[in-house]
Design goal:
The complex is a heterodimer of chains A (432) and B (115).
Chain A lengths: L2 H13 L2 H8 L16 E5 L3 H13 L4 E6 L3 E3 L4 H5 L9 E3 L1 H6 L2 E4 L2 E5 L4 E4 L4 E3 L2 E4 L3 E3 L9 H6 L9 H12 L5 E5 L10 H16 L4 E5 L8 H12 L3 E4 L7 E5 L4 E4 L2 E4 L2 E4 L3 E3 L1 H5 L24 E3 L13 H19 L8 E11 L2 E12 L2 E4 L5 E2 L7 H20 L2
Parallel strand pairs in A: 1-2, 1-9, 2-5, 9-19, 11-12, 11-17, 12-13
Antiparallel strand pairs in A: 3-4, 6-7, 7-8, 10-18, 14-15, 15-16, 20-21, 21-22, 21-23
Helix pairs in contact in A: 3-11, 3-12, 8-9
Chain B lengths: L2 H5 L7 H6 L3 H4 L12 H16 L17 H12 L8 H5 L4 H12 L2
Helix pairs in contact in B: 4-7, 5-7
Classes of the chains: A alpha/beta (432), B mainly alpha (115).
């Protein structure tokens, strides 16, 4: 018999009175039914991505007597992780698109629609089509939105027509792929990288690599120019080593010290201005500065930084009670804004919500983040970290984590693990 | 309320999550900080769920990422401790194993052994 089973037996007898005792001991009140059960409690989740779908699944898995509704504007989720493989021609978009059938099978009420309003007082959300849903706990996981105003001339329309960001996977991914396919050999691909903090810190540099992989095979005289406001970037040493080993000098990076930040774009002339210098590109991919997804802004969950402050143990908003924010939209640093982080945060958040419904204290969280990047189809690199809660703050465990060793000794194995990770985490979220 | 919900009105938390929620707090005579109290089962399941991001649903494995479900506790803990001390070469696991105490490693090994 396991320790947890023994613990269950020992504690379950005492648990019958936990609701009553909670009041005396200062535990969370007003969430549960008062009899230690959570039957009929309602959790509404906004967003069916890495954070939202994980939260919906795990709340239901931890206690299937809870009514869970997950609302997403689309019928499926196309993942940003591995979307660079679509851009590089290594995968089809269908392979990175996941429907919500497994969640429905688990008993999650999946609703297709865009949430346009959140009433934190009335504990309800309203959809564009007029439907509304009441909740006892709301989980908001809307991902990111863009600060279009930060770059002169860059608008949503420009992104949708001539200079895609491709930082939300789907049509944007396909648009950039088409542009790269149509580009003549000898052309220049400009990638405007965003300032911190942003979704998927290694993503722009993986993208450059996988576009280089495509060019190497099909358009070998082409060039890639990364214009970056930052003075360094995630896994920089590994990327530089991998770029050179695989693509020679095809990729050039101009960082913030040398005026790399894109300030202005002109879609008519296909030019961008960075550090006062004008650059002309044949395909231009501008990834603008970012903020929490729109509904988080509308609901007043974001602070002046544009991101959502949360209790680091429960992910409950520090602005609105009974609303939790997970994934890219929340302030979860030092965890990066990654799909793995969102998955890890959502599991801890789900456990907290279920515990609260049972009039219990939130569990002690533990998080992991592992991000694989493909520099080439058979050349992978990784960064990993383990996080713990210390004095109420998310903290990297000292002595743990870090990046792959230089020298490429693990590169082939890690390329394989990247694919195995993707299969595993997407099955965990959308496939089981 | 649906029939299934009515039938389950008295249902308690499942084993794994019950272990994870540190029940001791509310039952103690005086409130204590959550991070002072946690059973091994709670510790193991909280950590274990994060491992599933790579090691598959319930630890079933994924491609070359090994299965953990049902593997004896001693074998999982032994491997983790070897990664932690760099006695065993690996890729990402040496970096991850260093993030856990020996007690946490035993707890998560037990969690997967019982899957």
């Amino acid at each position: 018999m396991s320790l947890s089973r023994r613990g269950f037996l020992k504690l379950s007898a005492a648990m019958a009175s936990a609701g009553a005792m909670g009041a005396a001991t200062g535990c969370q009140q007003g969430n549960g039914n008062g009899d230690g059960t959570a039957s009929g409690k309602r959790v509404v989740v906004i967003g069916g991505g890495f954070g939202g779908a994980t939260a919906a699944k795990y709340v239901k898995m931890f206690d299937d007597t809870i009514d869970v509704t997950m609302i997403d504007g689309k019928a499926s989720h196309t993942t940003c992780p591995f979307s660079n493989l679509v851009i590089g021609g290594l995968k089809d978009i269908d392979e990175i698109t996941h429907d919500f059938k497994a969640l429905e099978k688990r008993g999650v009420n999946v609703v297709k629609g865009w949430v346009t309003g959140v009433d934190a007082e009335a504990q309800s959300v309203t959809l564009e089509d007029g439907r509304s849903f009441e909740y006892d706990r709301l989980v908001v996981s809307p991902g990111i939105d863009f600060n279009y105003d930060a770059i002169e001339g860059y608008t949503e329309e420009v992104a949708n027509t001539s200079m895609p960001h491709a930082w939300q996977a789907g049509e944007q991914t396909l648009l950039l792929r088409r542009q790269l396919e149509e580009m003549e050999d000898g052309g220049t691909f400009i990638l405007g990288a965003p300032p911190n903090p942003f979704r998927c810190p290694p993503g722009p540099y993986e993208r450059a690599a996988l576009v280089a992989n495509y060019f190497k095979e099909h358009k070998p005289n082409s060039k890639i120019l990364i214009l970056d406001p930052k003075t360094g970037f995630s896994k920089e040493g590994l990327f530089r080593e991998g770029w050179t080993a695989n693509y020679g000098n095809m990729i050039e990076w101009i960082g913030g010290d040398f005026g790399g930040g894109v300030e202005k774009v002109d879609p008519d002339t296909m030019t961008v201005v960075a550090g006062g210098t004008e650059y002309k590109g044949d395909v231009i991919n501008v990834i603008p500065p970012q903020k929490a997804g729109k509904i988080a802004q509308v609901a007043g969950l974001a602070d002046d930084s544009g991101w959502c402050p949360v209790n680091q143990q429960t992910y409950e908003s520090t602005i609105h009670e009974r609303i939790h924010v997970v994934g890219d939209a929340c302030i979860g640093s030092p965890m990066p804004k990654s799909g793995f982080s969102a998955n890890s945060q959502a599991k801890n958040c789900a456990a907290s919500i279920v515990a609260m419904f049972h009039n219990e204290s939130a569990p002690i969280p533990s998080w992991v983040n592992t991000c694989y990047s493909l520099v080439a189809p058979d050349y992978g690199i990784s960064v990993a970290a383990v996080y713990e809660l210390k004095d109420g703050k998310t903290t990297s465990v000292e002595g743990a984590g870090g990046v792959s060793p230089l020298g490429g000794e693990n590169a082939e194995a890690e390329a394989g693990y990247a694919h195995d990770w993707y299969a595993s985490i997407t099955k965990d979220i959308w496939g089981s | 309320m649906s029939q299934s919900h009515a039938a389950a009105t008295r249902r308690r938390l499942p084993n794994t999550i019950l272990a994870a929620i540190g029940l001791g707090m509310c039952l103690s005579a005086s409130p204590v900080l959550a991070d002072e109290h946690q059973s091994a089962g709670a510790m193991g399941s909280t950590i274990g769920y994060t491992c599933m991001g790579c090691h598959g649903v319930a630890g079933e494995g994924s491609g070359n990422i090994p299965r953990l479900a049902g593997v004896p506790q001693e074998a999982i803990a032994g491997m983790m401790l070897a990664y932690k001390s760099d006695g065993q070469a690996g890729t990402v696991m040496n970096r991850i194993a260093k993030g856990y105490s020996d007690e946490e490693i035993q707890a998560v090994a037990e969690f997967f052994a019982n899957q």
